[in-house]
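In the laboratory, one determines a bound structure by crystallizing the protein with its ligand and collecting diffraction data. In a computational setting the workflow is compressed into a single prediction: the sequence and the ligand go in, and a structural description comes out. We illustrate the idea with magnesium ion.
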Amino acid sequence: MDTAIAPGGILHGMATITRVRAIRTRADGTWVIVKIETNQPGLYGIGSASDHYRAGVVVAAINEVLAPKLVGRDTADIEDIWQSTLTSGYWRQDSVMGTVIAGADMALWDILGKEAGLPVYRLLGGRCRAAVPVYAHAAGNTIEELIADVQHYIDDGWVYIRCQLGAYGGGGFLEPASPGEGGRPRASALRAPFDTTKRGAFDDEAYLQNVPEMFGALRQHFGYGPKFTHDVHEHLRPHQAVALAQALEPHRLFFVEDILPPEHVAYYRHIKQVCTTPQAMGELFINSAEYLPLIQERLIDYMRIRVSKAGGITPARKIANLCEFYGVHTAWQEGGDNDPVNQLAAYHLDLASWNFGIQEENHFTDGELAVFPGHAVTERGYMYGNEAPGLGVDIDETAAANLFDATRAAQPRFMAEDRRADGSLVRP
Ligand code: MG
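The predicted complex, in structure-token form:
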């Protein structure tokens, strides 16, 4: 065996990858965890390769691309494994392969930490803060409901709170209506998926009107102590995004998120010329060509790419370091579909990045957390990991299998389609 133990008891990087597996879990099957096993007894790592809409494709890519590419490699060659897997199909990463590479990358950092006997954040340079601040998700169908939800988080110790109102998060909603009424086309023109008469429709102008009013009411009620954010979900037309950013300026948000879709990021130049509302962007990005100009030109304030969509800890730490030089902070995206392994990967980066800004909260059930011993905990607006070597989280494969519902997992899964009154698609 090629094991070599240093005088301090630390294992040198002599481990070799013997097996790469996909473990699919969550009841709906949307979480995919990569497990990398080695020739060293008991030494393995796990990483997140979850993709909410393409879980089966991710599993196939792990089996058909990742496993044959990695088996036999030394686990310590993290950078080279990342580079050579990225280009292994000639074209660079797409969202599926980026996630697959991320799963391997996190697992290799997990292994490196276990070999070194250190948590990953210490391999990244050590702590820059005592714990990781997290923002809450508050919502309501009315401003009264929203105020009550915000109050509940404030009472529970939270400082950073995302505020969303109504069906589209900003009250930009046209109620269901009869054909020919409420801005809808006549009945003979209505067919799925263009028929919004029964489920309501997105209305840009209503949204543009309601969101500043919402923050006016919130600031009047709570003052300027709480740090508020808002997520536009890329729903506005570009000129409306500029107008919204301007209208929000008096309410001094911590940031507004995804005010533009990725296709129209050039409009950030206009936004930055007319107002100081901080901009968070990036959760749909997968490639450095998409985010590099925004960082270099200082067009955004918070980088929100998801660690697992960036390709893992290896590229994410480079992004964080680059952002530091340009005055951009990190706010790695998490969201409702995130898993506890990706959450901890972000946590280690958060601890070790001076220019960290904020982490998004997650909600997991007790049954889901039971699958991941060592998972992070969030208390009064702060997230805490543990000091175990590596990422500090493991996977209980029996619990993972018990949680998994094959029937639900087999269902096709698509992003919900929001539409305007005329039936046209609003890009997410
Ligand atoms: Mg978002």
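The CA atoms of residues 77 and 249 lie 47 Å apart. Keep in mind that any predicted model is a hypothesis to be tested, not a measurement.
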